[in-house]
Structure formats: C-alpha cells, structure tokens
Amino acid sequence: MASVDRRTRSDDTVRGLDFVEFHEHELPEVLHGPNGDCAARALAAWRLPSLALQVDGRSYTYRPSARGLEVVAGEGDAAAVAALDGDAFSDLMQDVRSTVGLIIGDHARMVRGNQQTLIDWEPVFRAALDGRPVYEPGALDLRDRDGAPLDLDRAFAASDPPDAMAHFLATAGFLRVRGVFSAEEMAEIAADIDRAAPAYQPGDGRSWWARTRAGEHRPVRLQAFQQRSERAAALLDDARLLALTALPGDRHRPGRGRDGNPIEALIKPIGVVEGISDVTWHKDCSLGRHSYQCCGITVGIAVTPADEDSGQLCVVAGSHRASLPLKGLRDDLDLPRIGLPTAAGDVTVHLSCTYHMSIPPRRAERRVLYAGFGLPPRPQDSPERLDALRRIRERAPAKALELRQTSIGDDPETDRRKGFDTRGVRSRRAE
Hints:
431 residues; alpha+beta; Nonspecific Lipid-transfer Protein, Chain A; Jelly Rolls; ten-stranded mixed beta sheet; 19 strands; globular
C-alpha cells in the first residue's frame, strides 16, 4: 500500500517564540543552512512582493534579494503589513495555525496590502522553517504503476484491485469510484435530509446557512448527520466505505469521533449570494497543522447526481504533493484540473492536501454526504489544538454572513472574478 502519512512535526515541540529573538538570532541561523537555499529558490520561482509582520509595535520585513530571503527590522516600504499578536506569530511559524486560519479567526489584521499577499508567503515560511520546497512547473510527473502517464479521467469500480486504487490515490490525490452505493440507498438518504433540515436553525452551532438570490435562507451543511439518519450512521461502519479509507494502509479512522461530527450532509442551492456554500480552490489543511496531521481522507458520497450544471467536485491532480498557497490557484500552476461528475451512489475520495472546489450549481441542486477520516493519533498530539482549529472552521460561515459575502476575503471583486476559476478543468459525464 502507498502511505499518505506526511506528518513531520509533533505538538510536544510547540513553544512560545519571542518575536525579536526569533528574527535576530533563530531565523538567521536557519537561513544560513539548507533551508535558506530552499527559501531562496521559492522566492526566485514565485517573485513575491515584500511582506512585513508586526507584533506589539515591532516589525520585520521579509523580502527577496540577490542572496535569497532577506529579513530586516522595520516595515519600510513593504508591499503588505500584517499585524499579529505574539501567540498568532508563534503558531504561524510552527504551522499550528496558518495564515488563512489567522485571518478567519481575526488574529491577522492587514495594516497595508491585502490578505492574499500574506497567504502567498506561507509556503516560503514552510520552505525556510521546514525545508519544504515550493512547487515549480514541471516538478511532478503523474505515472501509473507501469510507468505510463496516469489516466486522470479514470473512474474505478469498487471491485477494481485495491493496489491500483491505492497507487492512484497516493499519486493523484483523489479517486472517483462508481456505484459504491445503490440509488435506493441514496433515495433514503435524500429523504432523511428533507426530514432533518427543519431541526437545524441558524446559529445553532450545528449547521451552516446561506442566502440565495431568490431571498431564501437555507441550511447548506447539516453537521453530525449520523444523529439524524440511521442510514448515514450505518455508513460509518459499512465495509464498502471502509475499504476505500483503508487503501493507504495508514489505519485512518473517523476524524471527528463517532459521537461528534464524523459525517455531514451538504445541500447545494442555486444562486447563493451570502454565506459559505461552495468554497473556491483550497486544501482541507488550509487552516493549519498540515505537518501535524496530514494527510487525512475525505469521502464524498453522491446522494444526487453531480456534473457541471449541478455543482460537481473539481480537483487539481498531484497538488497534495506540492507546497502551494492555501487558497486560490497561481497562474503558473501546470498540474491538471479535473472535474469529477458522479451519479447517485458514486463516491469521490480526496486527500486533505489536494486542491479542490465544488462549482456552484447552475440548473439543479446537489446533495452529498462528506465523511472525514484522520490518521491515528499519536501520544504527543494535542486534542486541544485540534479543537481550536475546528472552532476556527466554524467561525468562517458566520464571518461570511457578517460580511454579506460568500467568502471571508478582503477583496470581493477578486473573489467574484476568480473564485470559481474552471479554466482548464477536464470533465466527462458520469458513466
């Protein structure tokens, strides 16, 4: 089997960082080693504008130079300046909370410039501190077990050899599997969604809501759905589902506990204008802790058909193996973009580090179940930090509604223009 365990950090190493001491002594020492070369190559490849971080009135600017990454005191003419508190800075440098997580949690305030600049710099931080090279065009070659180009449009059958599916998942970061569940089972789930929806209310902490162009206020994410549907609860122990989560051989398990929120029912209305229903290109580890808990597995069970008109899932093949900005696609990203049309009962599988988005539906609503499966916990893992990240996640839909937007971005026009960029997405009808 092909392991997808990418964990390189553990919670017992996390500590508070002194902002000045880190920049005057710790970071320069790191940059004199191989990680400095890694960061220099990142900046040469991406050509980012300068960024200053500000904590308690002190600032340091990160900027490209002829020598690579240069860090100087003050903020001068930095293109963007982000104000953080001390805990937020410590977490960012140690991959506990990401730039996206800090923005959603209101722990990063842009004094100058926009949020995307801060987000774009994070892979450079990871290059400097973790030695993770940023992705450069041509760096990945997606091949099958025989060395031939991987057929990225392939839809597997549940009876296909597990080794073939495991290799595809580890290489491409996703799977599409036909006919795992029957249409009759999905019809029962659809009826359960209809029955359960009225039990959820705005602000109940168990659901996400959105407003549509038609003036409706709709629940779009029903959490802990296994408590509302016996059929959904049974799926968590269903051998057909568990066979897919077992493909990497890493002993993945329901990621939020069987009594918590292991499975969610999503309703995708047409014409959402406020609130988070569909999310632009992102990674599921975009809030932080990639190096502590990736790769997790997310399984999508198609309750209703999905295609280009009803909001299918799209993925970027191989992106789980690439260090990239956590939100939005760079124009020079050359990895294939694949649409995943599904019939009722089909299943999609994607890794937590795989870029993905679901297109807002245009002609028909979509309904889908999502179940998350995480790597087995280690003794040094911190449940408290994981819970803190979950609270940040739940902050996102409320913040979008407060802003009367469909995202938490600080540039609504950019979100409208580029948010659901489907250029180059390859798609076929579900077989």
